[in-house]
Write a structure and sequence with these properties.
42% of the residues lie in helices and 16% in strands. It is α/β, with parallel strands linked by helices. It binds NADPH dihydro-nicotinamide-adenine-dinucleotide phosphate.
């Protein structure tokens, strides 16, 4: 039976470290969160980020823009935030309404304030291993893996999913720690067989209960990034928790696994951004 990795506890410890450093060194840090439209899930995420800022002593600035916001209006706001000395980090909550070009919006954020690490400059820096911030969700997954005491070096790591925000950077972070990494996607052949090779298996698919016990090696560390809302309103991961937890050595639950880590890393990145900018 697997040990459950407690994302709430690990994330709470990170937020406490951020809070203590901010208080001890009297650091002024600010995060601007921009939300466009009325997506209920995005609202929940934004509120959670606001609460985490309050806890850490980071000033949060929220910009809730109407669904019909134009590119011009959004880019103008980003320019203003880029120039605002009280704002160290800028986060634009995704997804954006259809008329807005997400890529162009991300590229407009100053790389120094891009605490999500989605900007091309930051993605490139991560690729070559010379970065200030790591993308929040994959970095959170790495912290959870570290919390197990399992060393990534030399391990077979399989990531299911190759999105720019989760799968690809996750693979890169595992590679930085000397894992032997395989990235799977919808065109992968013999997926179950590939997954069964994994000492560390990360699922970022977006399909409820996708990873079943027959895809998991005995004793694997299983990290479930998926957040899927079922018809009954309950949240569920990409991993069939009940059966996979019988086989894995460590497993993250949903909720309470990767989710809270994403926000904790965001707080850490905002503190890093503030320190860099305050030193300039
Ligand atoms: P995307 O939809 O962008 O990517 C999903 C990936 O899964 C794609 O690469 C896709 O392959 C792959 N995939 C889909 N079907 C299959 C299949 N049958 N076999 C193998 N691979 C498949 O999702 P995201 O990366 O943005 O998110 C993934 C999950 O993580 C979602 O549930 C999301 O809600 C959650 N998430 C959670 C966060 C957190 O804080 N915990 C943060 C961000 C996301 P292909 O590229 O070929 O289409």
């Amino acid at each position: 039976m697997a040990q459950i990795i407690d994302g709430k506890a690990v994330s709470a410890a990170i937020k406490e470290q951020v809070r203590d450093e901010i208080a001890r060194d009297n650091i002024k840090a600010g995060l601007a969160v921009v939300i466009v439209g009325n997506d209920p899930a995005s609202r929940v995420y934004v509120n959670n980020k606001k609460k985490a800022c309050e806890f850490c002593g980071i000033k949060s600035f929220e910009y809730a823009l109407p669904e019909e916001t134009t590119m011009e209006q959004l880019l103008e706001l980003i320019d203003t935030l880029n120039a605002d000395k009280n704002v160290n980090g800028i986060l634009v909550q995704l997804p954006l309404p259809k008329q807005l070009d997400e890529k162009a919006v991300i590229e407009r954020i100053s790389p120094k304030k891009d605490v999500d690490a989605f900007h091309e400059t930051n993605v490139g820096k991560i690729m070559i291993g010379n970065y200030s911030f790591l993308p929040c969700t994959p970095a959170g997954c790495m912290e959870l893996i570290h919390s197990t005491g399992v060393d990534v070096a030399g391990k077979e790591c399989v990531v299911i999913g190759r999105s720019n925000i989760v799968g690809k950077p996750m693979a890169m972070l595992l590679l930085h720690e000397n894992g032997t990494v395989t990235v799977c996607h919808s065109k992968t052949k013999n997926l179950a067989e590939v997954c069964r090779r994994a000492d560390i298996l990360v699922a970022a698919v977006g399909k409820p209960n996708f990873v079943t016990a027959d895809m998991v090696k005995e004793g694997a560390v299983v990290i479930d990034v998926g957040i899927n809302r079922l018809e009954n309103g309950k949240l569920c991961g990409d991993v069939k928790f009940d059966e996979v937890s019988e086989k894995a050595s460590f497993i993250t639950p949903v909720p309470g696994g990767v989710g809270p880590m994403t926000i904790a890393t965001l707080m850490k990145n905002t503190l890093t951004a503030a320190k860099i900018q305050n030193d300039e």
